[in-house]
Each structure stands twice: as C-alpha cells, then as structure tokens.
Structure prediction request, 362 residues.
Amino acid sequence: MTGRHDVAVVGAGLLGLATARALAARGADVVVLEQAKVGHEGSGSNGTCRIFRLGYTDPVYVGAARQASDKWRELEAESGRAILLPAPQLTFGPQMPAVREAMRQAGAPCELLSAADVAARFPAISVGGPALLEPDSAVIAANVALAALAAAVPDLRTGLRVTALIDDGSQVTLLTGGEPVMARVAVVTAGPWTSGLLAGVGIRLPARATLEQVAYLRPLEDGGPPAPIFICHGSPEPYGLPVPGADLYKIGIHHSGPVTDPDAQTQLPDDELLGRVIAAAGQYLPGYAVTRGIAERCIYDNTPDEDFVLDRVGNVVIGCGTSGHGFKFGPLLGEWLAGLVTGDAAPPARFAVGRFSAASRG
Prediction:
C-alpha cells in the first residue's frame, strides 16, 4: 500500500475511472481509491442507463457532447462492448427554441416536428406541441460503461475511503483507514464527497448534494412502438429513456430532490417525489404504467451554475459538480482531467474553480 505513485485518483465513479484510463494510456503510474465498490448504490454513477444527447441551450456543451461521442466510440472499440445504443430523442418545452438555436450554431443535426408529426411518428408519447427531434441521441448503457472503464485501470482498490489530503507542495499524502498513499498529484473525483475533502486543503466549493427520485414504467400493451428518449426543457424538467435489454422505461424530474448529506442517504422511495414522477408519466406516456417496487434514488453533485468544476490547484486536480448531466461527457472529461495532471491538455476556462467568489485556497 505504501509507496509513491505518479497519480492517485479518489473515487471510482465515471470521472475517476475515465481519468485513470486516460492517465494509464499516457503511461502514468496511477492508483484509484474507492470507498465502496464501482457503481455502488450511493454513488452518482450507479444504475443501468443514462441519456446521451447533443441538445443544450449552450453551443459549448453541444460541441463537447459531439467530442464525447467520439470518445465513447473509442471505448467501445477498445472494450468490444456496445455502450451508446442509438435511440431518437424528442426535446420540447419552453426552452426548446434555444436548444434548437444552439444546435444550429454548433452544426448538430436536428429536425423540428409539428405536434401532428410527433403524434404520427411517435405515438407512444404525448408532448402536446412541437418538438425537436435529435437523431444522434442514444441511451448509454451506464453499467457497461463503468465496467469497460474499470477494466482499463490497472490498479483499482475498493473498500478504501480517503479521509483527508495533505499537499505539501511536492506531493500529496492521502490518509485512509489504513496506510497512507502518496502521489505526485491527487485527482479528486469523489462526487458529493469532493467538497468535504477539498475543504481540508483550503479549497472551498459552493457545492451541494441532492437526492433525486426515478421510477420505471412498463407498456400497458405488448408489441407497441417504444417511446423515444424525451426531455421537457423548462421548469419542472421531466425526462425519460428506454432501459437497454428490457421493456422498462425510466422516468424522472431533473433537479427536484431535496438537499442531502451523502453519508446519510436513504434508498427508500420519497413518496412525494414519486407522486410527481408518476404524474409526469401519466401526462407524457399514457400508454405506460408504473412498475411497483422498482424505484431508485440518485444523488446529484451540484454547483450553483450547473457547470462542472475541472481545475488544478497546487498538486490537486478537481473533477466534480456534474450537476446531474455529466455522464454523457464521461470519457471527454477524463481526458481533460488527465490533461490537467500531465499539462498536455486543459478544459475550457469556464470550468475553473475560481469562478466562484466563495472558492478559495487559504
């Protein structure tokens, strides 16, 4: 356990594994320390599936999603596993015109459908108006993605919680329940636990964790056309996607959960939140019924502006604040974070920690 590594990565979620893979490909001696196991139920990376989409109101994110698509395809080729499973997506709601304009600016394909077109082409969903069709969307097989990334990490240690960091200017010491681990650089990608660890080295982030609720549906009739991915861009912001390899459909409401302590999570359903999700299902997916007994909680690691935090302070590289929309960018964020370690690449400056007036090094 002792010894000095080039890099120690804290957290084996999506960002941590993607960063470790990118570093290993550069020839770095990298160790990943995970407090539980890969994909544990209390992590923000757990579950079977996520949405891959290009549609954002900001062209920067549209362009980043297109770059991430190429990175996912590289991981598929490397691992021999299908990860991005193509599926059409409908985007609608008050912010849909802004999404359309951002996609146009970024050169991403999309098609504006009338309400009649939607009803004719996608009878399993009811959107009540025009919608933007994204042909390059997909369902991410999230558990497959984590397994493929983990397989590319040569030194992954689970059941080992990092309790503190000490950056003395020449190396970082990571304190654990056992022997300390030393590294030239530490990468902290511990999801909602990140801000607590960083506070110990004087890096303060205005982050907060929320505990979201999702539900699963089944079609009322067998053999009908499946519902597409959907996102209603507005407030509230319901979304849904088909589950790979099953007749289930996952649905939730983005940023609707209460603030939580990541160490005090409950996986029990929240009846009030679940009721709101069920109501959304009835509105948009009338041909589906809620599957009782299958509901999940999902923890978000949020920043005030919902932009990620990707930066380096001293010998500590920070990757956090994915705010419930980071999974689609996973391998790209891993490349950016690895670049912050090695100095050969950098993420856009908008993701720097210094944008927060409350963030400081002291």
